[in-house]
Write a structure and sequence with these properties.
- The protein is of the alpha/beta class and about 270 residues long.
- Helix content is about 30%, strand content about 25%.
- A hairpin with a 2-residue loop joins strand 10 (about 205) and strand 11 (about 210-215).
- It is globular and about 50 Å long.
């Protein structure tokens, strides 16, 4: 299984320019016989809080990636923003009006749409985006895929839950250079502690006063980095074998030793 990671220099809030760049990445991916291509968080806009501009165009963004997945016959993982449905806002009038989402498209169809559970309050994301409430996974090539977005990486509990089924977990991000060592460390830790392949795709370049330096990578379930760490815009390629996950979980069944009922009890007792 060949994964292509589009470490992209996103043009700030310039959807049309970014679409052109995205298609160039698809063309490179075809040349390299990629099965799945993964783009950074908020692929066509950058990490923008201008929700009226980026969110209202969500449907067209999703359609674009659906068409790219059909045209290039490639599983496609991408980021976008989307308005919260009106019926949900009626039920929860205190909610923010937009989601930060990850989509997975195949053969022209959206197979998964995950809403980021943990908006980045330090960067004011929580003032504009509503946190999601559901974990999502999808089957592909006899493998279960899980998906998260950027700041989610700091919350290990959701990875433990996802990895009960998932063998590959994607994390798409706009993670700045100032904290890039933490990105590297957390991706590796999540791979080891969950016995999964972690596929982390970050952007590069500058946006809204922040500098991004990539470090997109695939980590194996034993913590080995499969791809070369690079900081410039590029397409990174990694070959993985999901069968390794199944075998490792048989020979070293770490998850069988988890004591989740005890953890829940300890958590409840800590609140007394």
């Amino acid at each position: 299984m060949r994964i292509g990671m589009a470490q992209m220099d996103i043009s700030w809030e310039n959807i049309e320019d970014n679409k052109k760049k995205v298609e160039e990445f698809f063309q490179k991916a075809v040349e390299n016989q990629v099965d799945c291509i993964v783009f950074p968080e908020m692929t066509l806009t950058g990490f923008s809080m201008n929700v009226e501009e980026t969110g209202e165009k969500a449907e067209k963004q999703v359609h674009f990636f659906e068409e790219m997945s059909r045209k290039y016959k490639m599983l496609t993982v991408f980021g976008y923003t989307e308005p919260v449905p009106e019926e949900r806002l009626k039920e929860h009038p205190d909610w923010n009006h937009y989601y930060n989402r990850l989509g997975i498209a195949e053969n022209g169809e959206l197979k998964l749409n995950y809403a980021k559970i943990h908006p980045f309050s330090y960067g004011f994301e929580g003032d504009y985006y509503q946190g999601g409430r559901k974990l999502k996974s999808v089957e592909w090539k006899d493998t279960t895929l899980g998906a998260f977005i950027c700041y989610d990486l700091r919350f290990p509990e959701i990875f433990q839950i996802s990895s009960e089924k998932s063998e590959i977990i994607f994390v798409i991000a706009n993670w700045p250079r100032s904290r890039i060592d933490q990105w590297d460390t957390l991706l590796k830790a999540r791979a080891i502690e969950n016995q999964v392949y972690m596929v982390g795709v970050n952007r590069t370049g500058d946006g809204d006063g922040l500098h991004y330096n990539g470090h997109s990578a695939i980590y194996s379930p034993d913590g080995e980095v499969i791809t070369t760490i690079r900081e410039e815009e590029c397409l990174l390629i990694g070959d993985i074998n999901p069968g390794v996950i199944k075998e490792m979980r048989k020979t070293f069944p770490m998850k069988n030793d988890r004591r989740e009922e005890l953890y829940i009890k300890m958590w409840k007792n800590s609140m007394l």
